[in-house]
Amino acid sequence: MNGSPAMLNDFLKYYSTVLRYMDNYISEPINRYHMTFDAFLILHEIGASTKPILLMDIADSHHVSRSAISRQISTLLKYDYVYQVANPADRRQKSLLLTEKGQATDKQLIHDISLIFNQWIDQLGANRIQAMLTFFSDFTQQVIEPQQK
């Protein structure tokens, strides 16, 4: 066994505390707009895309089913954050675009989340935040992505 029982206990304690804290602080401004964090990520991805983006493109990039993305998009449609444009060559394919309300919401949420993130940088220092991000990247590449193949 590679880790000690104490290491596992520390992991469980910090996993619960830190991730709940991060989730609560990041989700709080998002919840005001009747969205989940996942819906916000989709909203932001649609807004950041330089080309028309399809539901299946989003599902692929998030490594989830089309139905899971469809549920999130239905919320974004309901609150008028996105709209769909049918492909004239294949009307089953619909590009997703942000409405003006969606653009303003994305901009406001990025601002709000940036304030929170910048507080963490001020408290912990840029080097420690970068080390955390590097760890998350390594974890994604070495643990998550191999399991998805």
Automatic annotation (TrEMBL):
<dbReference type="InterPro" id="IPR036388">
    <property type="entry name" value="WH-like_DNA-bd_sf"/>
</dbReference>
<dbReference type="InterPro" id="IPR000835">
    <property type="entry name" value="HTH_MarR-typ"/>
</dbReference>
<dbReference type="GO" id="GO:0003700">
    <property type="term" value="F:DNA-binding transcription factor activity"/>
</dbReference>
<dbReference type="Pfam" id="PF12802">
    <property type="entry name" value="MarR_2"/>
</dbReference>
<dbReference type="GO" id="GO:0006950">
    <property type="term" value="P:response to stress"/>
</dbReference>
<keyword id="KW-0805">Transcription regulation</keyword>
<protein>
    <submittedName>
        <fullName>MarR family transcriptional regulator [Lactobacillus sp.]</fullName>
    </submittedName>
</protein>
<feature type="domain" description="HTH marR-type">
    <location>
        <begin position="8"/>
        <end position="141"/>
    </location>
</feature>
<keyword id="KW-0804">Transcription</keyword>
<dbReference type="InterPro" id="IPR036390">
    <property type="entry name" value="WH_DNA-bd_sf"/>
</dbReference>
<dbReference type="GO" id="GO:0003677">
    <property type="term" value="F:DNA binding"/>
</dbReference>
<dbReference type="InterPro" id="IPR039422">
    <property type="entry name" value="MarR/SlyA-like"/>
</dbReference>
<keyword id="KW-0238">DNA-binding</keyword>
<dbReference type="InterPro" id="IPR023187">
    <property type="entry name" value="Tscrpt_reg_MarR-type_CS"/>
</dbReference>
